[in-house]
Amino acid sequence: MKVSTSLITLLALSPLLNAQALAPKEASLEETAAKRWSEMNSDRVAGSANGQVITLSDVRQQVTPFVREIRAKAKTDEEFNKTLDSIAEETLKQFADRQLIIAEFKNSMGKIPESYVDGDIEDTIRRDFGGDRNRFVAALRAQGTTPLAYRRQIEDRIIFDYMIGQVRRTALEVGPGRVAEYFAKHQADFTHKESVKLSQITITQGAAETIEEAKTRANAWVDALKSPEKIAATFAFYKVIPPNQKVTLNFAEVAKSISTDDYASAGGDAGWKSIEELNERVATELRTLKDGETSNALQFDLPGGKSIWFILKRDGFKPAGNGSLDDVKVRSEIEERVRMESMKDAVDKWMGELRAKNHVEFR
Q1: Quick check: 234 and 218 in contact, CB under 8 A?
Q2: Residue 252 to residue 234: CA distance in whole angstroms
Q3: Sign of the dihedral defined by the CA atoms of residues 207, 242, 308, 299, in that order
Q4: Cβ count near 102 (within 10 Å)
Q5: 3-state class of 44 per DSSP?
Q6: Which residues face 301 on adjacent strands?
Q7: Largest CB tally within 10 Å, which of 38, 144, 189, 210?
Q8: pTM over 0.70
């Protein structure tokens, strides 16, 4: 099913594409491109699937947004034309597949409820146009389409998503045998570097604080975290109100109350980090801690004279090594990979059957 040379030539030589990707931004060349567009842009049938026509403009509409990027990456005109050829051919095939899927639905199930389409359109009007239907219609006109044509597009998209979703559901179950088989073949993908799970509290020197005062405050919180019975008194001394006075005051509650970084709302939880990605001082400190232990306050001086202090808590540690199926994260990732492969295989098999029982033609 090779796309004809004439199709690719028309796409590659389309003045719209040339104006976007090939021609320098000079008015005279843009005018020339516009003239050639009016001369050459007569539409025609590029292919058909089960009697449903696919036009050249359908293909061009999908390819045009990528032309500038293709041109930027291509080192030669030959490479540009070859890439454009490949994308145009793949786009045409995707159009054909889409038509087959929609036809299969209509032949086997009829029509989708009108309310599905109405709901989707109303969501778009509410989300993108502030509920203003007139703005929505004006935007369609600016794009050269009509509410009826747009409605058909939405109906086709809902049908396509539904049919693909139904096929994918047949491949959602992942048995332990397939997980073990995948792991055996891809063990190299699951080696891991030395990593640590940590939580942190960031204390920033206040505008009216001296460095010594801020350092004293940071050390006071370290002392309280290492002796949790002192946390309540430290909250009171610095006149900080805990986020929830009914819970046990611990590292997470202190982080929520006083930390000035992006992890504060999560109780300081920074998750798993590769040791080699961390600051050398931070990495060294975390290596000396045991799981559950809290560090001293690490001071870092910022440009302009201000300072910050990090209080770290090591929540877990993994030496470099091979992954294991006993690792929940590894097993979860493998299950997801196997599931994605199974869904792709199921869709590919189904599409092969659709193509085999329908007539597809590229011109």
Answers
A1: no
A2: 15
A3: positive
A4: 19
A5: coil
A6: 307
A7: 189
A8: no
Fold (CATH) for 194-319: Chitinase A; domain 3 (3.10.50)
Tokens of 37: 């567009």
Domain chopping of the chain, boundaries: 1-99, 194-319
Tokens of 76: 């030669």
How far the first Cα of the chain sits from its last, in Å, is 9
Q: Which residue, 180, 199, 177, 354, is CA-closest to 263?
A: 199
Per-residue pLDDT of the chain (363 residues; tens, 9 = 90+): 444 433 433 343 343 444 344 344 444 444 444 444 344 445 666 666 767 777 777 777 778 888 888 888 888 888 888 888 888 888 888 888 998 999 899 888 888 999 999 999 999 999 999 999 999 999 999 988 899 999 999 999 999 999 999 999 999 988 899 999 999 999 888 888 899 999 999 999 998 999 999 999 999 999 999 999 999 999 999 999 887 777 788 999 999 999 999 999 999 999 999 999 999 999 999 999 999 999 999 999 988 778 999 999 999 998 988 888 988 889 999 999 999 999 999 999 999 999 898 887 777
Quick one: CA torsion of 170, 175, 177, 182, rounded to 10 degrees?
A: 70
3, 362 contact by CB (below 8 A): yes
d(CA 254, CA 203) in angstroms, rounded, equals 11
In the beta sheet, which residues pair with residue 199? 269, 313
